[in-house]
Amino acid sequence: MSPVLFEHPLNERIRNYLKLEQLFKCLDISSSGDIHSSHITFFNSLFSIVDALERNDIRGDLIKELEKLEQHLVVWSQAPDIDTSLLEENLKQTVYLLCELKKTKQQWLDYRDIKFLTGLKQRFAMQGGTCAFDLPQLHFWLSQNNNILQTEMKTWINLFSSISNSLFISLKFIRLRGEFIKISTDNGFYQDNGESLSLLRIRTPENANFYPTVSGNKFRYSIRFVIPCTEMGRRYLNQPTDFELARC
Predict the structure, then answer these.
(1) Which has the closest alpha carbon to 164: 75, 31, 72?
(2) C-alpha distances in angstroms, 21 versus 27, 99, 225, 237?
(3) Which of 58, 62, 71, 114 has a CA positioned 20 to 30 A from the CA of residue 105?
(4) Within 10 Å of residue 124's Cβ, how many Cβ atoms?
C-alpha cells in the first residue's frame, strides 16, 4: 500500500474549499463514464455545489484569495532564477478569473433557468426521491444516448467553470505554502501552534496500519493517530509513530 495523504482545514473558509473541490471532482468523474450508473452521484454533487454557493459567500472569499495571489505573483516575478513563463501563465489565469468573478451576473446562476435541473433539485433532497415514478422526466432523459447525456452534463458543469477554476488555482498555491517535513512521536500524538495556518497535510508511511484524526483551529491543533479496531471501530495508537507534515 502506498503512502496516504490526509488533509485537514483549520478554518471554515478552507473547509468550504475542500468540500467544493471534492464535489467538482465527483462531477467530472461521474460525467465521464456510464451515465446510467453514475447520474445519482452527478446530480447530488451538482445540487450540493449549488447549495454551498447559495449559502456561503464563496465568490467573495475567492476574490480575496485571487487578489492576494496576484500581488504575490507580481512580487515573485522580480525574484532571480524564477521560471517567468510559468509565473506569467499563472498570473494571466489569476487576472482572468478575477475579472470573471467580479462580473455582476455570475454564470452559475443560469442553472435557475434550466427547468429540467430545478425540477430535479427538490426531489433529490428527499430520501428515495429519485425513483422513476417520482421523476419520469429523469427516466426519459436517461433513455437517450450516453454521448448526448455527457455533452449536456458538460454544458451544465461549464456554468461553474469560473468558480471551479478559481478554487483549483487557489488551493494549488495554498498547498504550496508548506513543505513536508518528517516528524516522529513517542506515543502517536502530536500538537503544535496553528497560528497563521489554514491547512494541514499529513502523509503516513507506506504500508502504515494507522491514520490521523485532527482537532484544532487557527490557534492550535493536535494530531492523534488511531488504528482500526473491530470491537470499538478504532483505538488510539500508543507507540512511536513516524509521519510527514506540511503546514500550509
Answers:
(1) 31
(2) 10, 21, 25, 31
(3) 71
(4) 17
Q: Across the beta sheet with 241-247, what order do the strands follow? A: 4-9, 199-204, 241-247, 181-185
Q: Is 74 helix (H, G, I), strand (E, B) or coil?
A: helix
- DSSP-derived letter for residue 147 is H
Residue for grid cell 455533452: 151
Dmax over Cα atoms in the chain, in whole Å?
Answer: 65
Tally of CA atoms within 13 A in the half-sphere of 92 that contains its CB: 6
How far is residue 139's CA from residue 85's CA, in Å, rounded to a whole number? 49
What backbone torsions phi and psi does residue 239 show, to the nearest 5 degrees?
A: -160, 165
Closest-CA residue to 199 (of 180, 227, 185): 180
To the question of pTM greater than 0.90 for the whole model, the response is yes
pLDDT tens per residue, the chain (248 residues)? 678 999 999 999 999 999 999 999 999 999 988 898 899 999 999 999 999 999 999 999 999 999 999 999 988 877 777 778 888 899 999 999 999 999 988 899 999 999 999 999 989 988 888 888 989 999 999 999 999 999 999 999 999 999 999 999 999 999 999 999 999 999 999 999 988 899 999 999 988 889 999 998 888 999 999 998 767 767 888 999 999 999 99
Give the Å distances, CA to CA, from 48 to 18, 53, 121, 191, 219: 13, 9, 10, 33, 30
| Residue in the block written with cell 426531489 | 123
